[in-house]
Amino acid sequence: MFWELLQNVNIAIALVFFSVFMLIYYITRMPSDIPPYPRPVLPIFGNLLILANRDMLMCFRKLRAQYGDIFSIYMGSKLIVVLNGYSVVKEALVKNGRVFSDRPINFLTEVLFKGSGITFTSGEKWKEHRRFAMNALQEFGFGRSSMEDSIIQEAKEMVQIFDDENGQPFQIKGVVTTCVANVVSQIIFGQRFKHTDPHFREFLSILDNATKTLSNASVAVNCFPWLQYFPGDPLKMKLIKEHVTQVVQWYKDMHEEHKSTYKEGAERDFIDLYIKEARRQEKNGQISTFTDTQLYFSIGDLISAGSDTTANTIQWTLLHFLNFPEIQQKCFQEIEQVVGRARLPTLQDKDHLPYLEATILEVLRLCPAAPLALPHAVSEDFSFHGYRISKGTTVLINLDSVLRDPSSFKEPERFFPERFLDADGHLIKPEEHIPFSIGRRVCLGENVARMEIFLFLAALIQTFEFRPVEGEPLPELKGIMGITYSPKSFLIRAMKRK
Ligand code: HEM
């Protein structure tokens, strides 16, 4: 009995000693010249416990107040550097853009996306395909007046579907996402789809599933990269692969269809331009990166980056209108005075609708689609503000810290479009207003997005007054942080203006 007790005590003491030893070993082996980070850093979990069950953006706000504009955080075993405030962000992305413009490499980008596409690639391949996509967007997107026509066409459709609800409460997410996806679809596939088209609906639902599963897995893979080797598939990789394969199959079918009808010199859309470039490079005997796989992942990047982001901004604006009806009223009065009710607003009206423009800027400031941009990585070992950041380290660009910085935006938490107007009511856009990020990775679809947000919202505000559901509490203005920052689902009534 006595010996048994002694043995148990010994084991307990040994365990305590071992844990203390491990903790001391872990703490002392932490590098000292990296940006400051919260302590303790626990084995396996790193600093994750301070993030657990908390809003990541709130958490970063606190860490910035404690450690300054440059801090780091251990997500599991992985060190992540977080940059805050306009001057540091600009210094990294613009002055040192050559170093800070890579993307991190991980299991998702390499195995799942096959190191292809635009959003998650780096180096020469990224440069070549980003340039190509920019030119294609210019040619079939914001550089053409037909682009405006096709957005207005979608806006009409949106107005009609809202009208069909007869002022009853409904969820706008599905309609808005489909109309916005149709705009990108016209640039890429050269065609729009009916909202009732079962093939398109199926595609959007597969895309939604893929985005959700990827959003969860990307956090887990980044924090615990070793989980991918665990038996039992804890990251649900099989399911994610299935979703990605289904989406890619859709793009493959579209590509095949395009190849069979392609006519050189009469390119209809992004896919045709890609076919032309791939054939040109093949003819020249070049070793080309214009492969089929690269095409599918570029399409995927444009569709996923171009749909939810813009759709969220439209939803966020209408959600704010429920909470701030006087701002909605001012937007409407401006449209009524400048455009009237007989025709839909066009891009020519944009400069004459500064209050609406200011409202859009304010929504993008408080509810940016990607408050932490997309993860960046440094392309070489680099010393920044005296801190060592080693090659490949993930760097998060905290756009939220810039957009809510009281030194640039007075009373930053307040929804106040007037901050973007001067005494004469003219629009002013401060340099620090960067919801599309800055530097070499700046959003590739910024021009298309700005056109869409303006035209869709102007048409909706001209036609409807948006009201909350009677007798229900107002929907929350706090969002959900996934791949994009989106509002929680809410009901709204679209009352046709008399
Ligand atoms: C409200 C709408 C949008 C917002 C706020 C937005 C914002 C952003 C942000 C913050 C980034 C990350 C930049 C960085 O990593 O530093 C980004 C990247 C990107 N966006 Fe957008 N975006 C929007 C709409 C669009 C649209 C309509 C398209 C395409 C038609 C698009 C295509 C892309 C692509 C391809 C990238 C990756 C660029 C690269 O890695 O080189 N975005 N966007």
UniProtKB/TrEMBL annotation:
Heme binds at C443. Keywords: Heme, Iron, Membrane, Metal-binding, Monooxygenase, Oxidoreductase, Transmembrane, Transmembrane helix. The chain crosses the membrane at residues 9-28. The keyword Heme applies. Pfam families: p450 (PF00067). Its cofactor is heme. One of its GO terms (molecular function) is monooxygenase activity. It comes from the Eukaryota. SUPFAM superfamilies: Cytochrome P450 (SSF48264). It is found in: Membrane. The keyword Heme applies. GO terms for cellular component: membrane. Belongs to the cytochrome P450 family. PANTHER family: CYTOCHROME P450 306A1, CYTOCHROME P450 508A4-RELATED. This is Cytochrome P450. It comes from Sinanodonta woodiana (Chinese pond mussel). The lineage of its organism: Eukaryota, Metazoa, Spiralia, Lophotrochozoa, Mollusca.
